[in-house]
Amino acid sequence: MSTWQTYYHLVWATGDRTPLITDPIRPELYQYMQAKAKSLDCWFHAIGGIEDHVHLIVSIPPKLAIAQFVKRIKGSSSRHLNKTFPDQTFAWQREYGVFSLGRKQLPDAIAYVENQKHHHDTQTLIRGLEPQFFNIPRKPH
User: Rounded distance, CA 25 to CA 39, Å?
Assistant: First the structure.
């Protein structure tokens, strides 16, 4: 049996940063993403976000590339939401951020992710972890 400990903070935004993660959709999205991660043999530590982006703290086994994990979670979750909520078109941006964590950083990262709404309301954000501070251009409307 192999043993591994990997911890990642992943973050990505909705297409064009549209506020699609509304109160009716959020629980369905979070539950789906957690179940999908488990089906990929990943350990899900936390999820949070606001209307236009999501943060995940997850352990991904070495047999699964981070890019493949993100592709599977983003693709299947958008398909699931479009099927479950057909009155709304849901899409993610192609880009994402990934940050590796040590075991000692895990509790603080989990707390940050689980308290996203508070951090955005009070502007106590960690700039490098928020998609609005990534160097990703928005599409013109």
Answer: 21
